[in-house]
Give the backbone structure.
Amino acid sequence: MSPWYEQLGFKANPLDVRPNPLVVGLERQEEQLVNHVLKGEICFLNGLTGSGKSSLLMKIQGNLRNHTMIYLDAQELPKDFNLEKELKSKRNFFDRIRFKKYPSKTPVLIIDEFQATDKNLILDARAKWENPDERKIKSIIIAQISKYLKNVTPAFKERLGSRTLLLPTLDDEEMKEILNLRLKGRRGANYYNKLHNEALNLLVACADGNPRKLLEYTDMIFDFHYRKFKHNNPMLVNPTYLVTYWGAKEILELQKVNVNAYVYLEKETKKRKLQAFEKRFSKQQREWLVFLMTGSKTTTELSRNFKISESTVWMKLRELKAKGAVVKAGKKQRKQLWQASPHVKRLRVRV
Ligand SMILES: Nc1ncnc2c1ncn2[C@@H]1O[C@H](COP(=O)(O)OP(=O)(O)OP(=O)(O)O)[C@@H](O)[C@H]1O
Ligand SMILES: [Mg+2]
């Protein structure tokens, strides 16, 4: 038995969740990132998990062909990693025959998963970027989920200045575009067209602004069809077949995905949908959501704001989470941060 995508004529899984240079909606961030590199600056790429940091880093490495790149995933570095050695290993053939100690094209250093970086490596990298007699590194890009840089000195932050790029959450149309690009098959076939628009809306809402989840959930739909129907897979044999909202919902529910984030109301206008969505939350819940839309909050902040105990806060958060209305948003001083989910934000629930 081969996997679903081979049956549909793909060599590899088009919905693979690993970093992929096919990014949507990040043109401005890409341009800024390239500009910082060209100017030889230090900059910081920040964004939620699955928001495309590693993918964007992959894309700019491909575009800056005339640069030497050193890409480090701080989580995967060997214990004895040595930046000096790494720099030397980037010398090309001509550098070596000319007995150059370092690459003639000064490398750009990219550190992904920066929160896991060893402090000494950071000091070494900064010195190699800054010291006039060294200047072995042209530019440094660091990337991580949390916006708080814990492992750097104030001096490093000073050099970083305000060069922080925050990856946005994509809007619904951009999320759909990811699938449209990924599901293009051979000979003009595009399996994106096998998904009814309401099925797509459901997938996008469940993914809650996280492209990685969108890919994962869409994979479940294709995988299910293949395993259930085998040679009679309607995706392949029935030219007019469409995955409906109901079909998609059932498949996602089987995989324990919380499908409550999106309510499909047949033949309803957008305004009526919004009203129906608002009906799903009590007045108090809507007050919470409006508060959580102003930025992420810890349970302590919530308990102070609404004058209730922290254990009640946890209970309320659980209720909102079950409705797909709040998501975790990193940590602040070891305390869990919460924010309104992108889907709720887009709907702008009114109190
Ligand atoms: N803007 C986007 N356009 C298209 N695909 C995207 C986008 N953002 C993320 N993806 C896809 O989602 C998956 C996860 O993205 P990626 O690994 O780049 O995220 P990340 O921000 O590095 O996450 P993490 O912080 O967990 O490492 C990848 O397959 C990527 O191609
Ligand atoms: Mg990453």
Notes: The mean pLDDT is 90.
